Amino acid sequence: MSGNTTEINPCPRCGAHAEVRKAGANRVWLECSKYGRNGNCSMISTPQPNRKEAIAAWNKLK
Fold first, then answer.
1. Rounded to two decimals, what is the model's pTM?
2. CB neighbours of 47 closer than 8 A, spacing ≥ 6?
3. 5 Cβ contact list (under 8 Å, min separation 6)
4. pLDDT digit string (tens) for 28-59?
């Protein structure tokens, strides 16, 4: 990885780490590691066109 990585904030709801998810060439989002079948947290960001924007959208969640 390059030194240009953006820090990913922990989940604003439960404090767990976030996981980057991708579908297709330009749909990236982050979700709580305890999302869905992995737990009971429902925190998920809106899909974005790339990883950088997805991380920015996640970090803005409250």
1. 0.86
2. 23, 27, 28, 29, 54
3. none
4. 999 999 999 999 999 999 999 999 999 999 99
